[in-house]
Each structure stands twice: as structure tokens, then as C-alpha cells.
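Protocol step 4 of 6.
Sequence for Helicase ATP-binding domain-containing protein (Ranatra chinensis) entered exactly as in the expression construct, tag removed. Do not edit the line below.
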Amino acid sequence: MNGILADDMGLGKTVQAIALICHLYEQDVGGPFLIVVPLSTLPNWLIEFERFAPQIPVLMFYGSVNEKKKKKPMLAARQMTSWGRKVCPVVITNYHTSISECKALASIHWKYMIVDEGHVIKNYKTILFRTLSSFPSMNRLLLTGTPLQNNLSELWSLLNFLLPEIFNNLNAFETWFQIEEMDKEGSAELLIKQEKENHILFLLQEVC
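Step 5 output, C-alpha cells:
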């Protein structure tokens, strides 16, 4: 399942994301998992993994060119765990490294990709948005405690990242939410008809 975890700051989005990964490992989903975070929060993510899930292998993928070169073979390499299973590590990297090392990261089919401070990709025209969107992943999760402004383009960018096969047309998305058009005769009935056919509100609820 793809979605947005939008709890307020301080309510434990990091721990919830770690719990999700623990659950997936428990269900024999052995990765690989990718977490993309701001550089400033990299140490905190490692601390939280060591605190709440010390048995899970974590690979911090950032640093100098030589450091990253040594770690590339380990990005999706399975290793034996303390509970007797071979799994891939959780790869944690920052925004800049995800761009500079996009070729290596895009060569792996990730089981789950998590983006911390997910509102950073609210502009679909940015390099970061295009880079992260290019990474093959079965599922995607955005973590953000920052509410979006009244901007449909920003909302669409997040939804397109999560469900590109559904939210694939910005113009159509904006047209659907032109509330002023509802004042015109028959517009309300048309919107209801479109909702029954396309289930847009249902899909938004499922994502958020």
C-alpha cells in the first residue's frame, strides 16, 4: 500500500515507519528497503533503529565518493540476521546522495521506499522529484508533518509520486476541483456522476 503518514511533528512518524519495516520483515518481506531523509536527520534515524529495532541491518549510504563506492555492493546484498533469515539491509540516504548516486539506487527494485519530510517533492518539476520517481519500488510512503498550502499542483505532485498510474494528468486533476464551476446549472450533478465513475475522493482517502 502507498500513502502519506501526516501526523504532526513529535508524534512518532519515524518510529511508525520503523515498525512498518519490522512488520514486513516479520512477514518474510526481506527488502530491499530505501529511506530518503534530510541530511540533518540521518543520525536520528540510525539512533531510532538502534533503539527500537537493533536486530535489523541498516546501511547508511552517504559520505565521500570512496565511502559510497565501498558500500554500493552492499545496497541489496542479503545477510544473515540474528533471527536466522537472510535479508537485505535498510538503506538510509539523504536527498543529495539520492541524486548524485541515482544510477546505483535506480538499479535496484525496492520493496518499499520511504521519503521523510515528503513535502520536499511537492514540486513535480524539481530534480529531486524526478529522481525519486525514477526509482523502481513496489510501494512508497511519504512522511510529513507540514501541511500543504491551498495549491492543487502541490497535492497532485505528491499523489503522482505515490500513484502515477492514477494521478497522471495535472490539468484533469485541477479541472475536477474547480469549485467555482459548481455554481453553474447541472455542474453538481456532473461532479457526482464523475465521482461515481472515477472514485477520486475514495482514492484520496485511501492514500491519506
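Step 6, annotate. Residues 13 and 136 are 23 Å apart (CA to CA).
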